[in-house]
Amino acid sequence: MSQLSVEHLLGIKHINKADIDLIFKTADHFKEVINRPIKKVPSLRDITIANLFFENSTRTRLSFELAEKRLSADVVNFSASQSSVTKGETLIDTANNILSMKVDIIVMRHPAVGACDFLSQHVNAKIVNAGDGTHEHPTQALLDSFSIREKLGSVAGKKIVIVGDILHSRVALSNIYALRLQGAEVKVCGPKTLIPKYIESLGVGIEFNIKKALEWCDVANVLRVQNERMEINYFPSTREYTQLFGINKQLLDSLGKKILIMHPGPINRGVELTSDVADADQSIILNQVENGVAIRMAVIYLLAQQVERN
Ligand code: CP
């Protein structure tokens, strides 16, 4: 197979294992390219991409922009806070105005669940979801699995625990879909109030004891508590959260084995991870960021193969 089964990357829920294999094979090639002295290929010289960010981002935004530039695409960037959205322009009007400037692919981050899906039904461009509210963050899940594969040889059969605020996390949902598709065993660990009731229907186990969860797993993917998405208190205090679910070096060293530590960023140092854990040699947090560029190059490259050229 040399083409994705989907026209847009809206979520991992919509793709299959062959798509993931194709993205990883393509990303392997691009990872080799970005480690050369000349880190660019001319593949997408005829493609224009708009990055529409209606929510803050450091890693995803820079990584997409770099990926697009490494592929030699023309790139325009849009921040909602500096745009006419603040004057009341709708999402479709904004997108159509950008498309009339002959844009082929839109990468969008938006606070509303389903915003990318909605856009894909109303505008004539390929859409890549860079995070829609609490729903999906597909390229994050792809780069996470790619990083596990790189360090452990494969994802199939590995035991992954996702720790923290599962309820508000698009990273958790996309990771669960991606890991299950590839045959990993997945558990979640966090306060009962931050674990959605439907989670077991996705083939995922639950462990409330952080030490037991870490003893079980090969990889811990640790998430930030998303206070900005909370309208009520889900646990008594940050201090109590850290005592019950935070990972420190003493806990890590007590396991008697070396697990991989992952985090999508941004990290709240001292809350979900202590600094000595975030910076430990078993932490692959910066490898994840590095792999994000190759994965996003692969996704953009593969979707661009479906763009009609005149
Ligand atoms: N992991 C991630 O999505 O980070 P940003 O919010 O900085 O893009």
Bound molecules: phosphoric acid mono(formamide)ester
- CATH fold-level topology of the largest domain: Rossmann fold
Shape: globular
Distance between the termini: 25 Å
Structural class: alpha/beta
Q: Supply the CATH class of the largest domain.
A: Alpha Beta
| Rounded average pLDDT | 95
* H and E order: HEHEHEHEHEHEEHEHHEHH
Gyration radius over CA: 19 Å
Unreliable segments (pLDDT under 50, ≥5 consecutive)?
none
Examine the secondary-structure arrangement and name the CATH architecture of the largest domain: 3-Layer(aba) Sandwich
**Would you identify the CATH H-level superfamily of the largest domain?**
Aspartate/ornithine carbamoyltransferase
Number of strands: 9
Q: Percentage of helical residues?
A: 25-40%
Number of helices: 11
For the report, how would you describe the main beta sheet? 5 strands, parallel
Please list the strands of the largest sheet in the order they lie side by side: 7-6-5-8-9
Instruction: Report the sheet-strand fraction.
Output: 5-15%
In total, how many domains does the architecture comprise? 2
